[in-house]
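I am still getting used to backbone structure tokens and would like to learn alongside you. To get us started, please write out a protein record for me. Start from the sequence, derive the backbone structure tokens from it, and show both lines together. Once you have written the record down, we can walk along the chain together:
***
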Amino acid sequence: MKKSEHSHIPEAELSHSMVHYLLTIHKLKEGKGYARVTDIAKDLGLTKGSVSTAVNNLKKRNLVTEEEDSKFLLLTDDGHNEVHRILSSRTLLFYFLRDFVGVDEETAENDACQMEHLMSPETSVKFFEFMKDLACTCERLEGKGELPENFDFKTTLDLCKFQSAEEFMESQEGDKQLSDKDTAS
């Protein structure tokens, strides 16, 4: 199984629910300054027992660790990289589905959430490059008559400010920076 460039995790190993645990730990740590099993259970509406089992699984994968003196959960470097990769994939998918494909915002958000962890790191990078190329070309050529007459692509995701997919991934802060009305958490 191929390993990701940005982490040591084989790409197909993370399930949708594992991703939600990682994102929740990240969100709690960013928002409250700490994440505990109790907090994760409350946030996800699950039992502490099921969260403990999942967290132990994430610890075995070297994605999560525990502070020795407090039982607070922390993302490892691999876990942190994985969160940023997933958030980047989700963001790109959301804007692609909403702005390129034309699905409504709720559908784009739900579908992006379902697909985010399935995208390989290689595809994420190529997807970023494709979207940036199209968005920045359109921005450069708008009003100059060089775009096809019926071509009306606009996105509110400013990809032109990023030099690389890696820079874009590193900028991803929270799981709610998808739509214009949401801000990073």
Remarks:
- The longest helix spans residues 77-101.
- The longest strand covers residues 64-66.
- The chain has two domains: 11-75, 85-171.
- Helices lie at 16-32, 37-44, 48-60, 77-101, 105-115, 121-141, 165-171.
